[in-house]
Design goal:
The protein has 662 residues and is an alpha+beta fold. The protein has 22 helices and 17 strands.
């Protein structure tokens, strides 16, 4: 029997013994045999999903005699956890997956789901349901004696915890997003479908704008990445409604003694090699082998590279495929030994403020993964030797070059024919801007354009260059050439499929802290803002106005917050919620994605299960860290965090509106 909510696909299927009615048919009888058997087994040792923003310990232990509804899938039966146990609403069921409903008391009862009687002849300890919508459902027992609310949600899980069928469903749907094309995708899946080309275009318009980066290095970073991941998930589910935008908990690698480059994420049956063994660094094996970059993209996007590839404008690489390297300007993994660890997250939590957390999430807690996967090559030996002497920090090469590009110092060719060799399509710093080659003072140039304010290694880099026999002109022009970074280390990072599972940890830790604050177990200053750190090459706190600039004219640059990061700036994502009218501001979106909002369509399988942490709990790891460092204690009355963000200084980005998309 199938009970439908509205027209179209049935919203829920109920499974019960075949003797209730002969209407089930052969398939239902086969499935329900298991349900009949399961009704007689012992109560499993799994927690209760009736919590109100409780702690993990409170949520997984039920010593009361009152009834509570337990929802579990085969995943929860295997891992012994309760789905959605820290969220601020009742029971959670995974949409489009068989879910078993039982009571914590283990008693047999009569079941009614959405006003439809599931059991009639005799009571059952357990029933099996399949919800096919994202909605609230009522589950009543004993003809209305008690009624529970079940929230049917998309469930995001750690990608390596998926069973093979779910892993294949995710990767197949993701591959379709990357290969179907925008026009064909809309025709096939509907007008709201967004292919990788559309998603990448949105990311480029925000992150590769010449004025400033509207997505990174300030307070809007998390919102933008939560939003675009949500859009990616919507497209995934248009292809296959059983899947979700699953996440990668990269803190597991160190805890499991796995070298970062040997993680299963880089196996061919996941996302392919992190450093392909070929001259052009093209990913060639597995389903992602020779993944194409959109060519002839000028009619699709106003931001392309000189060859017309849908790529960062300053990335003049002509090779039209996905590329990766585990070296950054000659430094293996940019000097990092591993991905961020649980302890790194615990240390960031100890700052107790939104503004500090945003800096950590933008930077050390996830940024290095982008660099380690993307890499950077294609320059001469000069800067490789410099960074070898500095023993790391090679990512500064690209970040400083982008800063000069936004200020108009570096100029990129507007057009290069498809057959133009890469060495003849390089960006430069024209003499008309920086001065004549003879007598050029590179330190004066770096001072004039603020590089000494964003890196404390500039002087050392110049001196090392001189010691290696380089002239001031060579030191400057080598930086101006940019080289070739891999996609993950650029504003076209969504071109790399590892981009999508990477940001799950970012949202999970934020949700955990909001839950703990609500439970009065953590002081968290959520004043909108960002803690800008000194000597961070990407954090320039600078905006350049290119309005009316022609030829070799220079933009007007000033110190200020890049639009897109202020609390009342709008995010470029429509259609996230059914009742959404227009675009959300940052503050509105932050309120929307609260872990206590039952209207959100998705949840994570757990926000405090981090196997790389002590007792597999990030919160436990934080408590240990806070105790050991004798940090400020809870409920001390002290004021955590920083003052509220400054006003909307400088000029607006289309008066706070996201950029119009063609």
């Amino acid at each position: 029997w199938k009970g439908a909510r509205g027209g179209g696909m049935p919203a829920v299927e109920y499974q019960r013994p075949m003797r209730v009615t002969a209407f089930f048919g052969a398939l239902a009888v086969f499935l329900l045999g298991a349900a009949v058997y399961r009704s007689s087994v012992q109560q499993p040792t799994v927690g209760v999903s009736t919590v109100t923003l409780a702690t993990a310990e409170e949520a997984t232990t039920d010593n009361s005699t009152s009834r509570s509804l337990i929802c579990k899938t085969s995943y929860e039966e295997k891992n012994g956890r309760t789905l959605g146990y820290l969220y601020g609403f009742g029971s959670v069921a995974q949409a489009y997956r068989e879910t078993y409903l039982t009571l914590n008391t283990g008693e047999a009862v009569y079941w009614t789901v959405d006003d439809v009687e599931v059991t009639t002849d005799e009571p059952l300890k357990e029933i099996s349901v399949l919800f096919k919508d994202l909605d609230k459902h009522t589950v009543a027992i004993n003809h209305g004696e008690e009624v529970f609310t079940v929230h049917s949600k998309v469930v995001r899980r750690e990608i390596r915890d998926l069973d093979q069928a779910d892993l294949d469903a995710y990767l197949d749907a993701a591959y379709e997003i990357y290969t179907v094309g925008q026009e064909a995708g809309v025709s096939k899946y509907g007008e709201n479908f967004e292919s990788i080309y559309k998603l990448l275009q949105i990311h480029l318009y925000g992150a590769a704008d010449k004025a400033c980066d509207h997505w990174h290095d300030d307070a809007g970073m998390v919102n933008h990445h939560v939003g675009i991941t949500w859009k990616f998930e919507q497209s995934l589910r248009m292809i296959d409604p059983t899947t979700a935008s699953h996440y990668w908990d990269y803190t597991r690698e160190v805890a499991n003694g796995v070298a970062w480059w040997e993680t299963s994420i880089f196996q061919d049956d996941y996302f392919g090699s992190n450093s392909p063994d070929n001259e052009d660094h093209i990913v060639t094996e597995g389903r992602w082998g020779y993944l194409p970059i959109m060519a002839n993209a000028r009619e699709f996007s106003t931001i392309v590279n000189p060859y017309g590839l849908l790529r960062s404008p300053w990335n003049t690489n002509p090779v039209p495929y996905l590329m990766r390297s585990n070296e950054t300007v000659g430094i293996y993994a940019d000097g990092y030994q591993n991905f961020a660890t649980c302890k790194d997250f615990a240390e960031a939590i100890d700052d107790h403020s939104f503004s500090d957390l945003m800096n950590a999430l933008n930077g050390e807690l996830h940024g290095p993964v982008h660099i380690m996967i993307g890499g950077h090559w294609g320059m001469s030996e000069l800067y490789k030797k410099i960074f070898l002497k500095l023993k790391g920090g090679a990512d500064a090469f690209l970040l400083m070059a982008k800063y000069l590009w936004r200020q108009g110092v570096i100029r990129v060719p507007e057009y290069c024919a498809k057959d133009t060799p890469g060495e003849h399509c390089k960006s430069t710093c024209p003499e008309s801007i920086v001065g004549a080659k003879k007598g050029l003072d590179v330190e004066e140039i770096f001072h004039r354009y603020g590089l000494y304010n964003v890196s404390d290694n500039i002087g050392t880099m110049v001196r090392l260059g001189h010691l290696m026999g380089a002239t001031d002109w060579e030191i400057l022009q080598e930086l101006c050439s940019f080289g070739y970074p891999g996609e993950m280390f650029t504003s076209s990072a969504p071109q790399d499929p590892t981009f999508w599972p990477l940001h799950g940890n970012v949202e999970r830790v934020l949700q955990l802290l909001r839950v703990k604050k609500h439970a009065k177990k953590y002081e968290f200053d959520e004043t909108w803002g960002y803690e800008h750190k000194s000597y961070t090459p990407s954090d320039t706190h600078h905006v350049c106005d290119w309005t009316g600039v022609e030829g070799m004219e220079m933009p007007t640059c000033y110190s200020g917050t890049c639009p897109g990061h202020r609390a009342d700036d709008l995010l470029p994502f429509g259609g996230l919620m059914e009742d959404q009218d227009g675009f959300y501001t940052n503050q509105e979106f932050y309120d929307l994605i609260s872990p206590g909002n039952s209207e959100m369509p998705y949840v994570y399988d757990s926000i405090d299960f981090w196997p790389g942490c002590t007792d597999a709990s990030l919160w436990k790891e934080y408590e240990i860290y806070a105790t050991k460092t004798k940090s400020e204690t809870f409920n001390s009355g002290s004021s955590y965090g920083k003052p509220a963000a400054e006003g909307n200084e400088g000029k607006s980005w289309m008066d706070g509106r996201p950029p119009a998309l063609p």
